[in-house]
Amino acid sequence: MIPWLEGRERFPPLEAALQEPNGLLCAGGDLSPWRLLEAYQQGIFPWYSRGEPILWWSPDPRMVLFPPEFRISRSLRRRLRSACFRTTFDSAFPAVIAACAETPRAGQRGTWITREMRRAYCHLFELGFAHSVEIWIDGKLVGGLYGLAIGRMFYGESMFSRATDASKIALAHLVHFLEEERFGMIDCQMSTPHLASLGAREIPRTAFIERVRFLVAAAWQPGKWPSGAATCEWI
Fold first, then answer.
1. 166-187 pLDDT, tens per residue?
2. 76 and 54 in a common domain
3. Do 97 and 110 belong to one domain?
């Protein structure tokens, strides 16, 4: 059995999270901005399927990406320099999260990005905490990602690609922007070979939480990121 959240009841201690399934902490509550921001600042995130109650997770170990450790392959570097792509920030957040929800995933049936989740994160976007990166070809959205920024900590949520390497290009521009703004870590939540190939690695939950507490307290003003097209001069 796991605890059930009622009203503004606080999250249980992370040590209470299950080992199997890894990181399941509690259920219930809601997706209000207050609840979501409280969760992320404690290293907790919601993840559940349609028809299930809201489930809250804090896995151990935790997959993270430190911006200086991001790996750019030769082929990705060539694509980043290609003139056919245009990259923007915070220009089409609702479209990005919708595309992430609609993109089929290998080994997955349906999506965890429910309508309720989409509304909740669009609300966080309006409040200046959620952000998106968009990749365009000939005016069409072909890739992107979204996540949350609290202090100088970024929490990656999901990405999609409708053209070769489009999501990787979005991540590369995100990493560069975060490094320029002195963000210290990107939360990738769950471990995957794809993320590992890009430089992400697992760290113990205790180390993750210690770093999160430091970064979320760092000065950073919530608000919309610059929406103009990003350049590749840094490559």
1. 999 999 999 999 999 999 999 9
2. no
3. yes
31: domain CATH number is: 3.30.70.3550
Q: How far apart are CA 215 and CA 212, in angstroms?
A: 5
Structural domain range at position 28: 4-60
In a shared domain, residues 34 and 89: no
> In 129-138, which positions are buried (b, 16+ CB within 10 angstroms) versus exposed (e)?
bbbbbbbbee
Instruction: Return the structure tokens found at 42.
Output: 């404690």
Residue 176 lies in a domain: yes
The C-alpha atoms of residue 141 and residue 105 are separated, in whole angstroms, by: 18
Q: What are the tens digits of pLDDT across the range 60-103?
A: 999 999 999 999 999 888 888 877 889 999 999 999 999 999 98
Q: Which two tokens stand for residue 114?
A: 């429910």
**Contact between 95 and 4 (Cβ < 8 Å):** no
Kindly report, residue by residue over 112-142, the tens digit of the pLDDT.
899 999 999 999 999 999 999 999 999 999 9
Q: Return the half-sphere exposure (C-beta side, CA atoms, 13 A cut-off) of residue 226.
A: 10
119 with 201, same domain: the answer is yes
Q: Give the C-alpha separation, 75 to 65, whole Å.
A: 20
